[in-house]
Every structure is written in structure tokens, then in C-alpha cells.
Write a structure and sequence with these properties.
By secondary structure, the protein is α/β, with parallel strands linked by helices. The protein is built from three helices and eight strands.
Length: 136
């Protein structure tokens, strides 16, 4: 079986702020920027991984979502408890320094975890939790 991760989705509530964060702070390339009905979907990803992408999308746009559910999702985003992703790097300290300099909301400094990895955590402008593991 040959299966890879192609896209994953993270919600945004400010497309310009998220675009600047993923492009300018994380250094991802912008692959697509689609506007439709007053909403915006932005596809970004690492330049050296053209088949793997993150789609930054408006929250709660799926069919069948009620107004109450939409409010809950927006509240969870504001608390930083709705969406998350884990990235990886070979130089966690340099990456963390770049994130801090770029104004990322730091949740956890680089830490050796008891389960065998070293990582850090921060939030993007929409409140999504992003962990970065150090590859060894």
C-alpha cells in the first residue's frame, strides 16, 4: 500500500494574519489562495515537500453545521482547543528562536518530554496549537 498525507485543514479567522504567519514566520510557500462567497482558502506547505500541504480554511463551513455548533467552534478556536498539528524539524532551537522573533504565541519552550521526544508548542493567529518535534 502506498499512502501519504496530502492535505490537512486548519481553520482561520483572519486569513491575512494566518498567511503572514505561515509564509513569513514558518517559511512555507503559498500554493493557492482561493476566494469564494466572501471566504478564503489558502494552501501553504514546505517548499521541499510539494505533495504535502496545509489548507487554511474558514471555520465551520461544512454542510449541516448548526449556528450553535458554529459558535462552539469559534469559541474553541479562541481558546486554542479546536485544531492542532504536529510538525518536525532537525533544529528545534533555531526554529523556536525564529518563531519567538516572529511573534508566535509560545505555549511551551523546547522541552525534553518523558515519552522520548524533544518539542515545543505555540499557537498560530487563529489559536491552532502547533507542536514541533525535533527529529533525531
Amino acid at each position: 500500500m502506498d499512502i501519504t498525507i496530502h492535505w490537512t485543514f486548519l481553520p482561520h479567522d483572519d486569513p491575512d494574519a494566518c498567511l503572514a504567519f505561515y509564509r513569513d514566520v514558518l517559511g512555507f510557500e503559498v500554493r493557492n489562495d482561493v476566494r469564494h462567497d466572501g471566504r478564503r482558502w489558502i494552501t501553504v506547505g514546505p517548499a521541499d515537500q510539494p505533495s504535502t500541504a496545509i489548507v487554511l480554511e474558514p471555520p465551520a463551513t461544512g454542510l449541516g453545521i448548526t449556528d450553535d455548533e458554529r459558535r462552539t467552534i469559534v469559541e474553541m478556536m479562541a481558546k486554542g482547543t479546536y485544531a492542532r498539528i504536529t510538525l518536525a524539524t532537525t533544529d528545534l532551537d533555531a526554529t523556536f528562536t525564529r518563531l519567538r522573533a516572529g511573534g508566535a504565541e509560545i505555549v511551551q519552550d523546547p522541552t525534553e518530554q518523558p515519552y522520548g521526544i524533544r518539542d515545543c508548542a505555540f499557537r498560530d493567529p487563529a489559536g491552532n496549537l502547533i507542536r514541533i518535534n525535533e527529529l533525531r
